[in-house]
Design a protein that fits this description.
Length: 375
């Protein structure tokens, strides 16, 4: 199969090409069914005779690119059928992120993702540094701050709440509208039972389908293992622990207990545990990236950008903890805040979207499986 230069096509043309290719491969798989125990894609596929555009969008978001079906497939290249389900699904997923993004004018941010997010991080870091230098007398950046409210003598708490509240509010709105577009396009509109939602939450929290059908995903060694699943767990729960730490710190602040907190304080314990998870998980995902011929596309690039942003966030956050009683705290804090701001605003335009679309796809999958079991 010859290489196609995707930059020659607009988003709609590319969507049709990706959907047609995924539908072609699903038709072959539906006749073969050898991989039906590997993940959610194949049981969902077996409920269909034909594969319309939105249906394959949905199936592509059930795939998590473990590669097990590629490794097992007797019709993979160089066979003339050219079946490479991970590649077809990854191409379609990446295209679907752009088609359902809000606002639609920002679809291009998924192209050259490293450039745009890197630029955003540089701009935010520069803005925090120049803001602090401009606000205070010269030298304040490298003064030593200790005691209650030390961080807020550099940047007032109200300013931080306003900046990060606005960024996070925008990101949540953009992601909610993106998921709503995806959901409306790929779901029939039937009412959902609470059990379907509960099943999807359970499958998400346990990463049920990251087993590659039992032995795990194929990693750099070429052998299946649970490495990728555990790294995803560390990353996801690390992120949630950091969120819990920040939320608890906000509550403590309004109760009159100001940061920085003692090392044994729950805010610090949650933050350190989350930060370590956000270092171990992304490093494991980076070093465990499979080197097989399957699924080389921009999805891998946006995944890499997100991993680097998570690592930068956790490393700079831990640097603030270590340096908080030294003259380097000001610079460490402003760099950390700039990176976190860039992470927040880029959430709707990078790999984080995968998690949201995947949860929506798992809800639909649970709904379909329960409906099929009743008939
Ligand atoms: S990926 Fe290959 S082996 Fe697996 S179901 Fe499809 S055609 Fe069959
Ligand atoms: S790559 Fe893994 S998750 Fe994707 S369809 Fe194949 S077996 Fe399923």
């Amino acid at each position: 199969m010859s290489e196609v230069n995707t930059s020659d096509f607009n988003l709609a043309d590319l969507a049709r090409m990706n959907q047609d290719e995924a539908a072609r491969q699903m038709s072959i798989c539906n006749a073969c069914r050898y991989c039906e125990g590997l993940c959610a894609v194949f049981p969902a596929m077996e409920l269909r005779r034909a594969f319309a555009g939105e249906d394959v969008d949905y199936l592509s978001n059930l795939c998590h690119n473990c590669g097990a079906c590629y490794d097992a497939c007797q019709y993979a290249p160089p066979h003339e059928f050219g079946v490479n389900v991970p590649q077809a699904m990854a191409d379609l997923r990446e295209n679907s992120y752009q088609r359902y993004v809000w606002p639609a004018a920002f679809a291009g941010l998924f192209q050259r993702n490293a450039f745009w997010i890197g630029l955003t991080a540089v701009v935010f870091v520069a803005a925090f540094i120049t803001g602090v230098i401009g606000w205070h007398a010269a030298g304040a950046m490298f003064a030593t701050y200790t005691g209650d409210g030390a961080f807020y003598r550099l940047i007032p708490h109200g300013v931080l709440v306003a900046i990060f509240g606005a960024l996070l509010g925008y990101a949540v709105l953009a992601m909610a509208l993106s998921v709503r577009r995806f959901w409306r396009a790929s779901h029939s509109g039937e009412a959902l039972e609470p059990g379907s939602i509960g099943q999807a939450i359970h499958d998400t929290a346990t990463l049920r389908y990251l087993h590659g059908g039992g032995p795990g995903c194929t990693g750099v060694s070429g052998r299946p293992s649970d490495h990728r699943r555990w790294c995803h767990h560390a990353t996801a729960y690390g992120f949630l622990l950091c969120l819990a730490s920040t939320s608890l710190a906000t509550v403590c602040h309004y109760l009159g207990y100001e940061a920085p907190y003692a090392i044994w304080h729950p805010v610090v314990i949650l933050g350190v545990a989350g930060g370590l998870g956000l270092i171990a998980g992304p490093i494991g995902l980076l070093t465990g990236r499979p080197a097989s011929a399957r699924s080389r596309n921009r999805s891998a690039d946006i995944g890499l950008v997100f991993i680097v942003m998570l690592l930068a966030t956790s490393a700079s956050g831990l640097a603030v903890l270590v340096l908080r009683a030294t003259p380097a705290m000001g610079l460490a804090l402003t760099i950390h805040l700039g990176i976190v701001a860039a992470l927040f605003i880029s959430l709707p335009y990078g790999k984080f979207v995968h998690g949201l679309h995947r949860v929506a796809a798992l809800v639909r999958h649970a709904h379909e499986q329960r409906a099929a079991a009743r008939h």
